[in-house]
Design brief:
Shape: globular
Largest sheet: 6 strands, mixed
Strand order of the largest sheet: 2-3-1-4-8-5
Distance between the termini: 21 Å
Number of strands: 10
Order of helices and strands: EHEEHEEEEHHEEEH
Structural class: alpha/beta
Strand content: 15-25%
Radius of gyration: 16 Å
Number of helices: 5
């Protein structure tokens, strides 16, 4: 059975939960189209280690697709990201205290990479199961964008035959009880992300039948 690698981040900025990881681990182990299995991996919210742990997971599970999730507090929809940009400009420190500003992610990399995921079908699939969704044109400049960019750079420079990209999710309802911010229930977001993953695997061509 082929795999889809679904990543989420550890909590950061004093939070005890991160919806991206709660969604990923909720869906871990599920099968899609009797052909794909979702494998979840939690990434550190740290510029210095997130990419290496992502590369290690790719090497370990040999996925057909990599979909990275991240928290975007304040958003009201699931938002597949269109483009990753080659910049680190952290408004807050990461979980290891690093706060790069106006720094390139890769000196030898292009200005940006477009997602390889089928964004429009993903949004349509998410909405079809009753979850709000829209394409986003900014993944920010924190660790989310860093992981998105390094994923795409890794795929392109290593000529990997996989698709990859990033999707932001809002706060979970539990996180906003003491905040003036929107949030969505975990089960609803997991339902939407599952629909998005299904849209990704449905975009793959069918394998030819085995010949004797």
């Amino acid at each position: 059975m082929e795999t889809v690698l679904l990543t989420g981040f550890e909590p950061f900025q004093g939070e005890v939960l991160n919806p991206s990881w709660e969604i990923a681990r909720t869906l871990s182990g599920e099968t899609l189209a009797n052909r794909f299995r979702i494998v979840a991996k939690r990434l550190p919210t740290a510029f210095s280690t997130a990419a290496d742990e992502l590369y290690s997971a790719i090497e370990s599970v040999h996925p057909r697709a990599v979909i990275c999730l991240g928290e975007a507090g304040g958003r009201t929809q699931l938002t597949p990201e269109r483009v990753a940009i080659n910049i680190m400009d952290a408004r807050i420190p990461d979980n290891q205290g690093a706060q790069p500003q106006d720094e390139l992610i890769r000196q030898d990399g292009p200005v940006g990479y477009f997602s390889l995921l089928p964004l429009r079908p993903m949004v349509e699939a998410i909405r079809a199961v009753g979850v709000p969704a829209a394409i986003s044109d900014t993944a920010g400049t924190f660790v989310c964008n860093y992981v998105f960019y390094t994923l795409m750079h890794h795929i392109h420079t290593h000529n990997l035959q996989i698709v990859g990209g990033f999707m932001h999710v809002p706060y979970m309802t539990e996180q906003v009880l003491a905040k003036k911010a929107p949030g969505l229930p975990l089960d609803l977001m997991a339902k939407g992300v599952r629909a998005a993953v299904e849209a990704v695997v449905q975009s793959f061509p069918e394998r030819p039948p085995l010949m004797c």
